Amino acid sequence: MESPLEIWSPELVRQIRADLNLTQREVADRCHMKVATYKRIEAGRGDATTAQASAIMNALGGRLVCEVPAELAAMRRALAGARDAGSAKARLDALIKEEVERSAPGDDQYEELRARIEQLERKIEESERQAI
């Protein structure tokens, strides 16, 4: 099995379509998408939604693969578990503590992690305010 491409670009889509000798209309029809929408995406005049990108890749014989960074996956698990267990902040604090303990002060990763923690704390506070 070939390794997945790690990019999504209009140029890639255009090249694959050309290699398959398909017209823009044929790909749009396969995607159940308006031709004008497909042309806009392929021309790079607008971002494709995940659903559109997936449909285009399927129409071209491929598939769209999305990977979630481990940090975001951990945050999502913490927040999902928090709905059942109580406080999202407490669960997230525990995950953050684990990550900080793996790093050392002065280490670039430590400083990046501290900055990310502060950003996440602000997002949590904002989410809590919106929930009230």
Helix content: 55-70%
Structural class determined from secondary elements = mainly alpha
How are helices and strands ordered from N to C? HHHHHHH
Residue windows where pLDDT falls under 50 for at least 5 positions: none
* Mean pLDDT score: 75
Gyration radius, in Å: 21 Å
Structural shape: elongated
Q: How does this model look, in words?
A:
- The longest helix is centred in the C-terminal third of the chain and has 24 residues, at about 110-130.
- The chain has about 130 residues and is mainly α.
- The protein contains 7 helices and no strands.
Summarize the structure.
With 132 residues, the chain is mainly α. The protein has helices at 10-19, 24-31, 35-43, 50-59, 70-85, 88-102, 108-131.
List the helices and strands and how they pair.
Elements: H1 10-19, H2 24-31, H3 35-43, H4 50-59, H5 70-85, H6 88-102, H7 108-131
Helix pairs in contact: 2-3, 2-4, 5-6, 6-7
